Amino acid sequence: MPDSTATAQQLSLPEELVLMLLNEQNGYFHQVPGWDLNCAVTGAVLAELSLLGRIDTDLDSLILVDAAETGDPVLDPVLAQIADEPAQRDAVYWIERLAGRAEGIIDQTLDRLVGLGILEHHDGDFWTLATARWYEELSGTSQEGTVGQLVKTRVVKALFADEIPDPRDIIVICLVNACDVFRVMFELDEETEERIDSICRMDLIGRSIAAAVEHNIASPMLRRSTLLKTIPVVALRRVLFSRHVRSGNVPALFADLTKEYGPVFQIRPPFARPMTFLSGPEANRWVHRHGRLHLKAGNYFAEFEKVYGAHGVLPSLDGADHFRLRKAMGPAYSRARLSGHLEEVYRRAREYMAGWTVGGTFPVRSCRKLINAQLSPISLSVESQDIIDDLMDFKERALTTHIVNALPRFMLNTPGMKRRGKAVDTLLERIQSVHTPAQRAGCPRDLADDWLSLHASDPQLVPEANLRFALSAALVASVYLGDALSFAVYAMASRPELHRRIRAEADALFADGDPDGDDFDQTSMEVTHRFLMECLRMYPIVPMSMRDVMNSFVLEGYEIPVGSRVFIAQTASHYMDDLFPDPFSFDIDRYLPPRDEHRSAGYAPYGLGTHRCLGSRWMDLQLAVNVLMIAHYFTLEVTPARYAEALPFSPLPSMKPTEKLKFRVAEQARELAV
Description:
yeast vps74-n-term truncation variant fold; about 50% helix; six-stranded mixed beta sheet; single chain; 28 helices; three-stranded antiparallel beta sheet; 2 domains; about 10% strand; CATH 1.10.630.10
């Protein structure tokens, strides 16, 4: 639980700086370049150590006064490093030297502020201020608001009300000013700018730290290396003759290329623009942390949007609008929303599985239909099994032509595809017919209600033209979730020992009737949870993503210029043996301590950074429920039997098992209570 007794006076300078720089419109910091932010955060740490009497600093030197630990996990490693330095250095040296620690300091600071209940963390690594009541210890009065607002209020009073700031506020003002952020936070006139300059001269510690920060920020040698490396080019034959190309295993292919060529490389197809790839854990870490400042999604997605008559849908948005839309729609895609519909999930799943007979077989595509049988009534309150194949085929053809660019554009305009495209209009007509106020009275809220309500309240954020995409995309999720289920069913059917262990958990969960959402935790489904994590590692549905470079950057010594299109192979690391030993072995013990192989930037089945899958928690629960129900009722076998040893993939436009895969019902363990 958050510590509700925390006050603004208890915050450290790094914490106050983070709160000052937080931009709630986009859920992250004001657009401070990475190196500038690192220098400012490091400066805040040094300033805090100075105020605590551990160091003394002025414009020319930094002296260790007391090496005793402060008890703060952010400050003490820095203090220890200063104590270990044999020669006396100045603040400029230490800010440059410690800037590499800044990202870890930021992470620790954000985590602490979340733990204190001062910040709220949102999926996709966004943060906003949490509203609470905070008690001012010195005055004994209460004030409604947030600690972050109190910090900003003190600064505003110092800048605009001519109040004399205390030394801590002076240092915060000096550091924010060094980042050149005040001009985007407030409307500054000449008088206010003079006031800021005057405040920054009031305190020697603030002056010295700010001067050191500004010196490092101004140094171009530190912001970008002059020893840039040439991006290696992969020979086409190296790709074409890879065994992983033949099997369709995209992550394994890029794992091999990353080992051979490094985290940045190019493939140059004939008659096409070069393809620049970012791959491996270092690239994942960079994209997750810095991608929001350098990469954008809109351009590559634009032609696909046009197919649905839309513009600015969730996958193509960046910045503040992307954050606003994710925040508004987050509850609609949450695990809690699905938990409220589990009774419907159980009923629909049993009705669908009632068609499975012992000795019979069903195609792998049936897993998509099973998921859609549940998603359609839960998300949109309509039936769509009769049109879901057309919806999925049309969407996959649109992705293949406009995103993957593997087919010419006219392939989306064939008579067959035009016919399938009409299924989108049919779906919308059905949704509109049941989403009138009278018909929704007394009904549990669904995803369509959320989209329609957001359109009505904010038609600029969600224009009517985008509803066609948003509502049909709800069912197209059956593709991704259904393919993830098909991989999980395959993994369970081809590994009888794991099937027995999963069935034991399923039998315990369903022993006293249908469980509720809280029953599906890591204690009751410990084996199933690790099993599904390994399925997502070995069989990621979306193995890579595309972005356009809006601000040039340097990654591991390679400069990526503005205007480039990059392909982020975030799941290549799933097959790198330094992160996942023996990566082609299905091993659910990877996720047990002390191994914990998933606790790194190398595990990324749901994507990275701000565009991480919004519905990942929903997907985790629905996937688990279906795997456990199948294990509870049936024993399945893989056919053809040779696929149990090696399964070919169909990689475009997303990864799925080969269409030749089927499942044979070997046993029905108990009757379905339909």
